[in-house]
């Protein structure tokens, strides 16, 4: 059963030089209990998409179009009060990138967990809420007596676990996990991911797992949405994304992360960097970095095409799967692109501004 249905979502940030189109026409639906990965480089728009769902966006952000239907409720139409009362933490919760920022430094971690529980459950006493917090700590491998500590007394790994406790305290139907382990060392990362998965399965919560790491999503997710330049450029079950992707960006990402089943794999990175999202113009946003870009790619924005079994791809050349997959595995394919007199998408203004600065000098 569909829990979350995002349709044509556009979330933009107001900036001095225009709108930053951080989420630009994203559509995605999620079933109950399902785990969907959002993968893409830093700046591709993953966090903006997740924060739009729980409406924890900064002041300069605006949802300018589209809908987010959660269990029959249109999130974009709720007042802040309704959202806090009915949805945030109780139905949808978020584990942020850095847990330390999620806690208020002046209250003990326990007090904050009790506060969240009691805000949503009028009938739960302080003692009961505290006991639930202690049990969650125990489940997450933290000594329950540490519940009276202040956030700064926790190590990074412990704070992250405590944040997971907070995010799961009200058994939400959907958990948004935003790079929940990037701030931690590698050994702890695996353990925390396992814990999140176990707790999520126990509660039968759905989860959106945000990461730039292809290996993390392949191990933890049922489906994967690949995000680039504010758009979902490929969406399919995890197996298809890992073994049979069609989008050149997905192929590039796959080259850049170690495959646990292949010891001899040579890692190849994608040259260049993600596009500026102010006024990106028409055309595929990946074209300036894509070794397969043709005339059409520069001129026409590709729309999602279906390749069966929920596999969707936004690429004009996605039909040429054998050619793309064969060439994408070669290092020489991913040389810096010779763009000739083409301007990379979206950076025309930036280049003009730079030229002006030089003239002013
Ligand atoms: N408050 C803001 N004001 C203006 N632009 C912003 C703001 N927050 C993010 N952006 C821009 O929006 C785009 C998407 O950012 P977002 O944080 O959603 O990407 P991300 O894929 O989650 O990256 P990261 O992994 O670094 O968080 C980027 O170009 C970023 O610079």
TrEMBL record:
It holds the Pfam family ABC_tran. InterPro entries: AAA+_ATPase, ABC_Ni/Peptide_Import, ABC_transporter-like_ATP-bd, ABC_transporter-like_CS, Oligopep_ABC_C, P-loop_NTPase. It is a peripheral membrane protein. GO terms for molecular function: ATP binding; ATP hydrolysis activity. One of its GO terms (cellular component) is plasma membrane. Residues 4-254 form the ABC transporter domain. Residues 326-361 are annotated as: Disordered. GO terms for biological process: peptide transport. PANTHER family: DIPEPTIDE TRANSPORT ATP-BINDING PROTEIN DPPD, OLIGOPEPTIDE TRANSPORT ATP-BINDING PROTEIN APPD. Residues 326-344 have a biased composition (Basic and acidic residues). It is found in: Cell membrane. This is Peptide ABC transporter ATPase. Keywords: ATP-binding, Cell membrane, Membrane, Nucleotide-binding, Transport. The keyword Flavoprotein does not apply.
């Amino acid at each position: 059963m569909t829990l979350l249905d995002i349709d044509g979502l556009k979330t933009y940030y107001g900036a001095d030089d225009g709108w930053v189109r951080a989420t630009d026409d994203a559509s995605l639906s999620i079933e109950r209990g399902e785990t969907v990965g959002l993968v893409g480089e830093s700046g591709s728009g993953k966090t903006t998409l997740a924060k739009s769902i729980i409406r924890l966006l900064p002041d300069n952000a605006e949802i300018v179009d589209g809908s987010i239907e959660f269990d029959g409720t249109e999130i974009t139409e709720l007042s802040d009060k309704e959202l806090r009362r009915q949805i945030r933490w109780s139905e949808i919760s978020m584990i942020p990138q850095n847990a330390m920022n999620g806690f208020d430094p002046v209250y003990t971690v326990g007090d904050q967990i009790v506060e969240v529980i009691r805000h949503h459950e009028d009938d739960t006493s302080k003692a009961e809420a505290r006991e639930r917090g202690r049990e969650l700590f125990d489940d997450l491998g933290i000594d329950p007596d540490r519940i009276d500590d202040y956030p700064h007394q926790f190590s990074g790994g412990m704070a992250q676990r405590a944040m997971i406790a907070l995010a799961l305290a009200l058994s939400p139907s959907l958990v948004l996990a935003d790079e929940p382990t990037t701030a931690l060392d590698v050994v702890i990362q695996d353990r925390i991911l396992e814990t999140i998965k176990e707790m999520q399965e126990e509660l039968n919560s759905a989860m959106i797992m945000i990461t730039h790491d292809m290996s993390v999503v392949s191990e933890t997710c049922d489906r994967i949405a690949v995000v680039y330049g504010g758009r979902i450029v490929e969406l399919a079950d995890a197996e298809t994304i890992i073994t049979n992707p069609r989008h050149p960006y997905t192929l590039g990402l796959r080259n850049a992360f170690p495959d646990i089943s292949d010891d001899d794999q040579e890692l190849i990175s994608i040259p260049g960097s993600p596009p500026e999202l102010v006024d990106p113009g028409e055309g595929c946003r990946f074209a300036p970095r894509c070794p397969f870009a043709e005339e059409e790619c520069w001129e026409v924005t590709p729309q999602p095409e279906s390749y069966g079994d929920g596999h969707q791809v936004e690429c004009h050349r996605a039909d040429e799967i054998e050619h793309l997959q064969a060439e994408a595995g070669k290092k020489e394919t991913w040389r810096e692109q010779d763009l000739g007199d083409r301007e990379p998408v979206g950076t025309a203004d930036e280049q003009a501004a730079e030229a002006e600065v030089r003239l002013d000098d």
